[in-house]
Hints:
The complex is a heterodimer.
Chain A lengths: L1 H31 L1 E7 L9 E2 L31 E4 L5 H6 L3 E11 L7 E6 L5 E4 L5 E2 L4 E2 L8 E9 L9 E11 L5 E10 L6
Chain B lengths: L4 H25 L5 H10 L13 H5 L9 H4 L2 H16 L2 H6 L1 H10 L16 H15 L12 H12 L4 H4 L3 H16 L6 H6 L1 H15 L4 E5 L9 H5 L5 E4 L2 E4 L9 H5 L5 E5 L19
Antiparallel strand pairs in B: 1-4, 2-3
Helix pairs in contact in B: 1-7, 5-13, 7-11, 8-13
Amino acid sequence: MKNIKLWSLGLVGLLFAVGFGRWAQSLFVVSELVHFSVNFPSDGRAETMSCCDIGGPWAREHEADWNDYPAGGVLAYGDEGALVMDIGREGWIKRALQPYFISISSHWLRNVGIQPYRIQLEMEMCGMDLEWLTFESAWDPVTHTSTRSIEPGKSFNMDWFFTIPPELRHQPVVCEGELRIVDADSKLLLTEMPIKILDSRATQ
Amino acid sequence: MSLYPNTYRLLSRHWLKRIAFFLLGIVLLYAPFALLTRLVLWVTGTPLLPDAHRICLRMPIQWLGQPWMYRTMLEQPMYLGAVLVLPAIALFVGPLFCGWLCPAGGITEYLSRLVPPRFQIDLAGRINPTPIRYGFTAGLIVAAFVGGNVCCSFCNFTHTQNLISGIFGHTLELSYWTSFTAVSFVLWFFVLGLFTKGGRGWCNFLCPAGALMGLFHSIGKAVGLGRSVQVNASLCRSCKKCVSNCPAWAISMKQDTAQVNSHMCNGCMDCVKVCPDKAISYTTNRLPSGEPAPAAPGVSSGE
């Protein structure tokens, strides 16, 4: 009986963790703290080479397998496409606290090429004021440029915070912006990723 | 400090010592200081800013289900320290990190002492947190397979870091809330913190780091390795002062003698200080045969 009780309590803990985790992730991936990864370079093509998935896909399992990605490259897992977040799908707590204070996060601005790059990030979100936050020490916050080279297979990280101004609220498509990753030395575009902010609760 | 007059008189110096160590924990591990983290990042040439996320123990535990993620330790070496050093310490000398260094637990424990007991939930002896904590830790690992994320969405270390950063003027992360961080904060700080007797409800139910260290501590005690808090049954008079003062709910009475649950004990040693009969001590573990175990490396045998 005592063993049954112990196992039951353990099961309660496990189910609580799983249940909370599923609830949190359902909000993570669509609205409240969307994480995404961006692979560069993509030969300057406008077509995105970026993915949305928590944990990020590894474009290569081993560095020895690097080739001229993106041509012929593959993703380990995840989807390619624009980053889409829907503030209409925020949880009720977020909607009550700060529905228009948004954050998006990439811990995986990943160099999938064959040479190191110093990157400059350009984020355009319909003129909204952005706050940039990173746990990288090699970062120039004025020019939004990494001060170290990112080796093939390695990543850089950045979080962005912004508040949707009143004039952009309450419409189905709040903003269509983009993130550009530029070679800080040659100024060539490495990749760009559309970012769409939607509000599925808004009416036309 | 009249809320716990008798306890305060016995424990005041001990508590001040523990508070000093918790402040040391902040200085060593939390931004804007993070001195230990800075040292390791400098030695290893890791180009990251030092804060509590560099020593995360939750992610390496979750990665038991995602082993390919352990390569992250190559870029963030302090994860290796957290996943190797802390369990090793727990194995030999107990989960002293929990009871003496972890500010996430220390903050709620000591703030809870300012709340009148009549406003607090008293769960000690009413529910066994050990299986719940182990189950939660298992759930943290399993959740990644079933479309869940517990690791970062339910993290009191992040809340502690954000609070400390906010105190020193870096308020951006503290100002941003999601549904799940709001729930976890309320649970950690208020429900299981300030308004739970002992202030360690989160630690006792929901901390995977504590679960891992408790497991290693129990293993050490079971095989007679290292040291732990133990009760001398011949001296115990069943006054239950240790039971009522244990923030980890690790002590219970069995046949009129206090018993320490090594899965839950966090090594704070409040019980050692509060026992009027000196029946509790932090001493060498003994083999099941009763013979003293060989001393742990660098630790002398006996009290």
